[in-house]
Amino acid sequence: MLEIKRLPDGASFDVEFLGIGSIPESPKPHRHEYFEIFWILSGNGRQSIDFVEYEMSPNKMFFITPGQVHDVHELSDNIYAISFNAEFINSQVQSQLPIDKLFLQNRSEKPYIVLDEQGNKDLSNLIKIIENEFNTNSSDKDLMSMLLVSFLRYVMRYLESEVRSYSLKDTRMVKLLKLIDEHFHSRKDASFYAEELAMTNKRLNELSKEQFGHTVTQLIHDKIIVEARRMLAFTDKTIKTIGLELGYEDTSYFGRFYKRLSGTTPQQFREKWFSSNPK
User: Residue ranges of the alpha helices (H) in the chain?
Assistant: First the structure.
């Protein structure tokens, strides 16, 4: 069973410095119910996000969205882990912008940015202010929220230029990702999402390829494969049941679909996973 990580009761924000010898938040793969940032200060490590492994090296900052499968294989020497719930961030558009940019849109490409020396210096000063406020007995939640938004907006400078720019099309692409998350089980046709976003299939695919490097169909397929892997790895459900839950009544077709996109059959993935991650 896949562990679900939550912030402590009554908490909506947490910041923690993990030094040499620290223990990962969970020694096994897990999912969060909150947003998390892993900022690597020194040392090398390894982690997987949605079954894709990434090297944790100095100056990298990773963004993990609620629901993603996170597995820390080896911690770097020094890391800042920043966690917060959606309600911790003001609902105003300008406050939500860095969430959309750093967590949602960046999810479809590389889930991290790389800081330079100046960025590390400036953000180190800012995180210390946040950390000090967090550790006071009467911490000001509104102040920490505003400081976190400032932190995230500064980090946005390190996004690639085409992702950093903001326009009406970006809001629609963020909505596209949210719609896929909600409906991928039952709606695999790009026309459904085009209709929901009040545009043609052609225009939606143009924007999707421009923003994410993938067509709408590819984004849907990517989501299905991640969810299939999650169930194959963390449940005892049969491949037939998994296929049905993902909207495939024909088990053979689901197996062919999975192999075409992943290079292995669902059973081969499951066997490889359990051989690499014994209980």
Answer: 93-99, 117-134, 141-155, 161-164, 168-183, 190-196, 201-212, 216-234, 239-245, 251-262, 266-276
- The partner residues of 52 in beta bridges, in order of sequence, read 49
Per-residue CA distances from 28 to 2, 61, 73, 130, 199 (Å) = 9, 21, 9, 29, 42
Average pLDDT, the chain: 89
Domain boundaries, the chain: 3-163, 168-276
Domain 168-276 sits in CATH at 1.10.10.60
Stretches where the chain sits below pLDDT 70 are: 1, 91, 93-94, 105-109, 161-170, 279
Distance of CA 75 to the CA centre of its chain: 18
Token pair of 134 as six digits:
């967090």
Residues in contact with 198: Cβ distance below 8 Å, sequence separation at least 6, in sequence order: none
Of 207, 225, 224, 226, nearest to 216 (Cα)?
207
Report helix, strand or coil for 270.
helix
pLDDT tens digits, 115-129: 999 999 999 999 999
The label of the residue with tokens 């039952």 reads 186
Q: For the residues of 4-19, what is the DSSP string, one character each? A: EE-PPTT--EEEEEE-
Position 48, amino acid: S
Which CATH code fits 3-163? 2.60.120.280
**Cα dist. 137→12, 82, 110, 140 in Å?**
16, 19, 38, 9
pLDDT in tens, 97-112: 888 888 876 665 689 9
